[in-house]
Amino acid sequence: MTLSYDLAIGDRAYSSWSLRGWLLFEAFGIPFKQQRARLYTEEFPALLANFFPARTVPVMRTPDGVVVAESLAMAEELASRHPEAGHWPADPRARAVARALAAEMHAGFTALRSHCPMNLRVSYETCEPPPAVLADLERLQQIWAWARKETGATGDWLCGPYSVADVFFAPVAGRIVGYNLPVGAEAAAYVAAHLAHPAFRRWRAMGMVDGADQPFYRREWPQRAWPGPAVMPARAVEGTEAENDTCPYSGKPVTHTLELDGRRFGFCNAFCRDKTVADPEAWPAFMAIYRS
C-alpha cells in the first residue's frame, strides 16, 4: 500500500493559513490527500477531531501517522523529509533570510490580519486602512526589500527561487489586492507574481466555487474587479455533450459541461466543471484538451 500525507484545510476563499499549508504541498510537487471543512460549522470541529491535538487548520498527518499542526512546523517537517523539493533556498545565507521572513509572518502583522481578513472572492476599492495597518504594510515592504538585498534576488521571489518565505506571504498578496492597500512599485510587482503563480490561481479558482459566501468576511465597501490575470470567458452549460468523453482530472465519465469559445468540454462533477469555469488557464489538464 502506498502511504501519503493527509492535509486538513478550511474554506479556500477565506482560510489564509490553509492556503499556506496547501502551497507547501502543491507548489513543491509533494502528493497528498485533502480533507476540507467549512469554517463556523459543525464540520470544522469534527474534522479537527480526526487530527488531534490540532486546534486549527492547516494540519497534516505524515505517512507514518504523526500529526503536525501549524504551518511553520509543517514547512520544516516537509523540508526535512523532502530535501529535493526545495522548500528552503539551498544557499545558507538565503535560507537564513527566508526562515527569518517566514517566522515574522507567522507571528506578526496582526493589524493587517484583523482589519483585512483574507477574502479571495472580492476586491474592494478601499478599506480605509487605519494607521496600524499602514504600519504593517510599511514593515512588509521593508523586509521584502531587505530580503532581496541580502540574497541578491532579482526575479519574482524574495530569496531566489520560490520558497517557504513566499508561501507565507501568499495570503498577504491576496489581502493587498483584495483591499486595494497602498504599496510601492516593487511590492506591487511581488504581489502580482503571487496572483499569477499557477498554484495560487488553482487555489483561488477552487475558492470561488467551493461553498456559499461566509457572512463573517462580508464588508460594505465598494468593490472592483479582481486585479489578477484575466480569466478566459467560460460558462457552465446543461447537458453532457462534449468534445471529451472523460473528465480531464479524474478520468471518470462526463456528467457536467462548460462552454468556452463555442466549444463544449465535460467533467465528472459540478466542482470539477466550476473550478475550471472560474479560471480555465489555471488547470493544465484542461488546457491540454482545449489546445488539442
Shape: globular
The end-to-end span amounts to 35 Å
CATH class of the largest domain: Mainly Alpha
Q: Rg, please?
A: 19 Å
Helix content: 40-55%
Overall residue-averaged pLDDT value: 97
Structural class: alpha+beta
In the CATH hierarchy, the architecture of the largest domain is: Up-down Bundle
Count the beta strands: 9
User: How many H/I helical runs?
Assistant: 11
User: Number of domains in the coordinates?
Assistant: 3
Write down the CATH topology of the largest domain. Glutathione S-transferase Yfyf (Class Pi), Chain A, domain 2
Q: In words, what does this structure look like?
A:
- The protein has helices spanning 16-26, 43-49, 71-81, 92-107, 110-115, 131-151, 164-178, 185-196, 198-207, 270-278, 284-290, and strands at residues 5-9, 32-36, 59-61, 67-69, 123-124, 223-224, 235-237, 256-260, 263-267.
- With 292 residues, the protein is α+β, with helices and mostly antiparallel strands.
- It has three domains: 5-85, Glutaredoxin; 92-203, Glutathione S-transferase Yfyf (Class Pi), Chain A, domain 2; 231-290.
- The strands form three sheets. It has a four-stranded mixed β-sheet with strand order 2-1-3-4, sandwiched between helices.
- A hairpin with a 2-residue loop joins β8 (256-260) and β9.
- This is Glutathione S-transferase.
- One of its GO terms (biological process) is glutathione metabolic process.
